[in-house]
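Hi R.,

Here's the chain you asked about this morning:
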Amino acid sequence: MKDIYGLLTDPSVFEVNRLKPHSDHRYYETLDEARRQESMKWRHDLNGEWLFNYSENLDSRPIGFETLDGDCSQFDKIQVPGHIQLQGYDKPHYVNTQYPWDGHEELKPPYIPTKYNPTASYVTYFEVPKEWDGQKVCISFQGVETAFNVWCNGTYVGYSEDSFTPSEFDLTEVINREGQNKLAVQVYKWSTGSWLEDQDFWRLSGIFRDVYLYTTPKTHIEDLFVKTPLHHNYQDATVEVDFTVSGEEATISANLMDANHQVAASGMCHVVDGRSRLTLQVENAQLWSAEHPYLYQLELEVKVNNQVVEAICQRVGIREFKMINKIMHINGKRVVFRGVNRHEFSATYGRSVTREEMEWDVKFLKAHNFNSVRTSHYPNASYFYELCDEYGLYVIDETNLETHGTWQRMGAVECKDVTIPNGRPEFLEIILDRAKSMLERDKNHPSIVIWSCGNESYGGENLYKMSQYFRERDETRLVHYEGVFWDRRFNETSDMESRMYAKVEEIKEFLDNQPTKPFILCEYTHAMGNSNGGMDRYIALEDEYDMYQGGFIWDYIDQALWSKDRNGNPYLAFGGDFGDQPTDYNFCVNGIIYADRTISPKIQAIKGAYQPFMIEVKGSGAEIYNKHCFTDLNEYVIKWQVEEGDVVVAKGETEASLAPLTRGFIELGIDVLPSAHEQVVTVSIHQKEATLYAEAGHEVAFGQQVIEPTQKENISREIKSFTIAEGDVNVGINGDGFEVIFAKNLGRIVSLKYDGVEYIHQPNLSLMPSFWRASTDNDRGNQAPIRMAQWKLASLYAFHESMDIHRHEDGLEVIFNYNLNTMPISHAMVTYFINSYGQIRVTMKYDGVEGLPNMFKFGMDLAIPADFDTLTWRGFGPDETYADREFGARLGTFTNKVADNVAQYVIPQACGNHTGVRFATVTNEVGQGLRISGETPLSFSALPYSAHELEAAYHHYELPPVHKTVLSINLKEMGVGGDDSWGARPEPRFEIPADQSYEYSFTIEAVRP
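And the predicted structure, written out as tokens:
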């Protein structure tokens, strides 16, 4: 064996004695066993508790532990599969584009750290199953990060890199069939492969996927490749299967079974010189798509001398994915990807994701209107593709390749001598090996429609050669690579124009200039923290341009790991929390769901943006656009209802036909009668029957129409008795069940009582002008807090320059003119009018000033005691909404706990806002509280913290104990944006320029039980 350092730094050596990659089919002794898909008798699981030794570098690794008499008595124990960093050894380390050794050691490819290269030495013992006597014995490692050596009974077996595809070795000549065998594995965190695995993820290591022994019958289908060309206008199909067979001459008999277990086609082929091809003709074929993931089962029996020696049940999805007139088509229809990038990730297990977590992910995506996934940025566990086949998701399967840090530094693109793979010949075979390992394992999954050459690895000849390999080996799929955007030397590497985070206008510019390729966004609407604003602008492009074919949100799940704070309480940790430096901190938490697989409020908008029907409610029915390619509206149920306030005054349910990709008016018989109250008509579309991922009745789309109330008559009320008391320092008004006091010296309201209950919790949050929010990740990324810093000071340190008091026959009017402490000087005038019923009408007015930065919001904040912890609002919901993220929300009346409005974005930030708020109440356990209503709809939130407290905390456990409920009562709040998180701002129409004038009014009154 080559010396270890030389082995780990030689790009030409990426495997030693590793077996050829092959399809991931399962095989059995009999067809009955194959049909049941039981545990394979020809596999022997080695997962479980192994002996383990940890070393910080190569020099300190144990020598000779792999020998039969090697002493392992001092070894610890560890679970396989699993990352060592999540079991008490080494530490998790997060970086994005920079390499983890940056600043520790000066290195260039292919060299690796010497001082710190965590080395994991594993030992386990096994016995070969007796029934395998006379058969070969191999071992399969489904995923080991990043490089490893294997020994069996002290004999060197082999070596492999590529963390995310199987590595298999033949143990036949080194095993002891009569007793115990010693298996030793040594895993190295850093190798040449580490330069090729610079993905935006935690740097973890170890045996993190399944390990098992396997055998095969003496005559065995080593590999099979299913293709399904379509004919006669997509009506009929040919199922072609190429076999590679080891052993004796044999025949293969086949039945293609439909979903009703009926034979759709049958045939037989002969094996000659280890090769065979089966061809089956299928008339009136049922086609596979994400909408209708129809799967046939190909039942195969391998016979030698007319005796069955092996049986296989291979699922087959008949479909055609190809480019037609510069547009990608699935089964003859233009496809639009409504997708997401998915890292394999678990807050508990890292990338050692459980089957249950994979199942949850696929069900979640389907239930929320996703139709596609990009496996960013490496092949996933095989089971995930099986689920995508079964549930229906289009997949971009991505090669395990990213070299971002070798060509882009702090945002600057610099192609230098360290850039790999580029055209460097020594890196050609190592990347081709990764592509081959992925394709050969995954090629029979109909869900996979595109092969990807990897991610963010610049350009060059090597990547072009990889793309050509994909095309030559598999003509049934297209090839993707975004990196040609940065390097056009080999533009034909990618069959489509793929970009990341392109702005809408940039996309239009490309599509308006006679493009030769369709356009997709392999990453867009960066979901970091409170984000995904403006996503609807990208969805609109689907109908504007045929060559715009959708995109993949970045990304699916927050990459945060469970840890404990100094008090022993669990929390979700991000980069830097483990003392991992260098780091990119919270840039690993960009998920549309949280790391613990709870759902973030962003999903409301995304499900709405991706809904497969557009519904415009009008008149007695709805104009509906069916975005499906293959599904008629009649496969769903249409429901409608008319709400007047909280009361449903009419409703109905029906079914109707509307062909795929067509628009039409659906008559529903809706008759809205005039009312003095606002009415909302909702039309929604629901699943007729239960599916694998949702119950019958699950809503897939909705639309609403708001019917304005008829003109209300002004009803005069008698003036009740009240008293105004003006002293030297204070002025107040009190009446039946209320009292309000203003302090002349402080320039603000200092007491607000209803029925003897004091609502002013602290004077600096007593209905004062507020222009600040706790900066979101996107805000920080575009430096908004730096640009807008004056408005934080204005929100904390505004002071009144004048106070006017006016007595009226029906109440008290108090006017404060606030100097907002900005430069140039700006003012806000706040007028309070308290009537004889104790209702407080508040008006805030601001005259625009040139030369000031935009505001985060325009409104007022009020802190009340924390006992008022139940929020009810009529507006958009049920989850938080923002000016640029209202899509997917519905107008209604909703109730939750104030604490529930604190979204669990890992760094506390602005959250819990609700737009379109007609009124909101905040009450205590007996139903007492305040009601706030706007003369026009408000932007409103109720949280247990002020914006400044949220912003001061770096983790949720750093937030202070709850002592108050903070009401933020705003005319408007800036959008959250999300085109990217490192510079993009919300659309101008969702910003709040300070050179414009603003005025709004709202009323505060008591809520009584």
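The chain is about 10% helix and 40% strand.

Let me know if you need anything else.
M.
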